[in-house]
Amino acid sequence: MSDGKPAIFLDLDASYMVGDKVSDIECGWNAGVKCSVLVRTGYGREHESQLGEATKPLAIFETLNDFADLALGQAE
Fold this sequence. Notes:
Pfam families: Hydrolase_like. By secondary structure, this protein is α/β, with parallel strands linked by helices. Helix content is 36%, strand content 16%. α3 (44-48) links the parallel β2 and β3 (59-61).
C-alpha cells in the first residue's frame, strides 16, 4: 500500500482502511492509516474471532454502508 502512496498522493494520516479480514486490518495499521475498521459482512464475522491486540480494529461495523454513513456524518 505504501508503494502506491507517491503515485496517487494518498494522505494515509487521513485515510481509513475498511476490511473483512484480519489481514486487511493489519495492512491498514502497517500502512499508517488514520484507522482500520472491520465490517462483519463477507468474511468479517468469521475473522472477528481471530483479531488480536495487534490487529484490533478501531471499530467494527455490521456493513460497509454502516461505516460509510458514519464516515460521511450521516449516522443516526
